[in-house]
Amino acid sequence: MNQEEIWDVDAAQRYDTPGTGMFAPEILRPTVHRLAELAGGGAALEFAIGTGRVAVPLVRRGVPVTGIELSRPMVQQLRTRADEATIPVIVGDMATSVAPGDFTLVYLVYNTISNLLTQAEQVECFRNAARHLRPGGRFVIELWVPELRKLPPGQTATVWQAEAGYIGLDTYDVLRQHVVSHHFRFDDTRQARLTRSPHRYIWPAELDLMAQLAGFELESRHADWSGAEFTAESRSHVSVYRIPPNR
């Protein structure tokens, strides 16, 4: 599976869930508030902008946003919410594509850096963020913590969510740091819908080293967008990296 096959027309049309899931106000509101603070009055660049889940409300907060997105169907879905003049988008790979402009913030949300399936590509993503930022600019990554502590010897899968109509499980290849997320959606019938996506998981310490290679310093790390403390039990983190102001 490659990313263009995963994020096809069908996926793009089903992606938005207004008011629920990732689009729930209790998730979006603190995300947008924190990013607006970090932009510091400048412009923002979103890697893997998707359908504009974060970019559209961030623009409404007064932050100019440009996007980079690999999937044309996702961009087409974004265009139902904002035109090119409002949110310009470069179609391409977030590890190598260049967007015109002067940015104080680059951000990459909801685990999307793990869509890059090699360490080299993930390092290039950091370098691409750095080349877009003015001195003192920030790169923000939201990412899950690999749940390997849940794997007893001989087991390769964890169930990370189970609720009415949905089961989510991950299968791990620990030698390559690869994981495939399996999403089962079902109703009262005997049929279920399965979608899958491959990822390369990254430990926080490895992420910090990638940042260092690209010239960033870790400024802060919290367990969520509201600033909760990051601990050994945290399932995800929001990490803020900064280019030194005197670069």
UniProtKB/TrEMBL annotation:
One of its GO terms (molecular function) is methyltransferase activity. Gene3D superfamilies: Vaccinia Virus protein VP39. Keywords: Methyltransferase, Transferase. It holds the Pfam family Methyltransf_25. GO terms for biological process: methylation. Residues 45-137 form the Methyltransferase domain. InterPro entries: Methyltransf_25 (IPR041698), SAM-dependent_MTases_sf (IPR029063). The keyword Manganese does not apply. This is Methyltransferase type 11. It comes from Streptomyces iranensis.
